[in-house]
Design brief:
Layout: E1 6-10, H1 14-24, E2 28-32, H2 44-48, E3 53-55, H3 76-80, E4 88-91, H4 96-105, E5 108-111, H5 115-135, E6 145-149, H6 153-164, E7 168-173, H7 176-184, E8 188-191, H8 196-199, E9 204-207, H9 216-219, E10 227-230, H10 240-245, E11 249-252, H11 256-260, H12 262-283
Parallel strand pairs: 1-2, 1-3, 3-4, 4-5, 6-7, 6-9, 7-8, 9-10, 10-11
Helix pairs in contact: 1-12, 5-6, 5-12
Length: about 280
């Protein structure tokens, strides 16, 4: 791999510490604001100056904005205005505002949060959810009633893991295809729009749907001693204010891969990002 050029990493969690260490063996890297690293003196503008690649955190921006997700006062509008036109920006979960900004500045923006990334990331997410369930309950998961809302990548892995340790798993999903798949795998199923009968039986509810599904009406059907673990990205799928007023036990579990398995999840990021960089340098696009 060509070792010329400069790579900048703006912020990120512990996964980006491992990424920076890996990239240092192949590139000359300047890092600003990555957890655990002492090199925090350069400003973001100094860090990105003349860089060939700019790596942004996961997710890159706060919802409906261009503010960097883990930096209170750094707006990518300002960062992009000083970037060279030939820079490639690697972003995690780029929102529409960021895509528009990149087009306005003529910057090549690549989202490394691909289908492959999501599939690989589902395992540490599911393991993290189970870890939280074990820590925040006073009963065994074996024999407990677990309701999984949504049957996407995380939902499928989570259902398999919970079933493997003896939990009684019910899957509530929207599409007939998802429900048929869950049923074929041996799980009880319920249409997510008619899940009140499941909610009042569940000891633990795992939500993976990234839209409001556990509204006040549905929360009224949740057992008072149940645990709600919301795995959906912000703003989540649970009305947290209503859950709080109803004195329900809930947690919005964000960024689990980086918290639970930083080494494994960093390897996922490393492999995805290095693949993009190598392809870009080989093809020149």
């Amino acid at each position: 791999m060509d070792k010329s050029g400069k790579i900048a990493i703006l912020f990120g969690d512990t996964r980006f510490m491992h990424l920076a260490d890996r990239l240092k063996t192949d590139f000359r890297v300047e890092v600003y604001g990555v957890l655990g690293l002492e090199n925090t003196k350069p400003t973001p503008f100094e860090c990105v100056k003349n860089c060939e690649f700019l790596i942004l955190p996961l997710p890159a921006c706060k919802p409906l904005s261009t503010m960097i997700n883990c930096a209170e006062n750094v707006d990518l509008k300002d960062i992009f205005s000083v970037l060279d036109k030939n820079v490639t920006v690697l972003s995690g979960k780029a929102n529409e505002n960021l895509n528009i900004l990149a087009r306005q500045h003529g910057i090549n923006l690549i989202d490394y949060y691909t289908n492959e990334f999501e599939i690989l990331n589902a395992v540490p997410s599911a393991e993290g959810a189970i870890k939280i369930a074990l820590e925040r309950t006073d009963f065994t998961l074996c024999g407990s009633s677990c309701l999984i809302l949504g049957f996407g990548r995380i939902g499928k892995v989570l259902a398999k893991m919970l079933s493997g340790i003896g939990a009684l798993v019910t899957v509530a999903a929207r599409s007939p295809e998802a429900l048929a798949t869950a049923k074929s795998l041996g799980f009880d199923t319920q249409n997510i729009y008619d899940m009140s009968s499941c909610l009042n039986k569940a000891d633990i509810i795992f939500n993976t749907v990234p839209s409001l599904i556990l509204d006040q009406k549905n929360l009224l059907n949740v057992k008072k001693d149940a645990l709600i673990i919301d795995l959906a990205s912000k703003p989540g799928g649970c009305d947290f204010e209503s859950a709080k007023s109803l004195k329900l036990n809930f947690i919005h579990a964000l960024g689990l891969p980086g918290i639970i398995a930083p080494k494994t999840s960093s390897e996922i990021i490393i492999n995805c990002i290095c693949s993009f960089i190598e392809e870009r340098r080989i093809n020149g696009t």
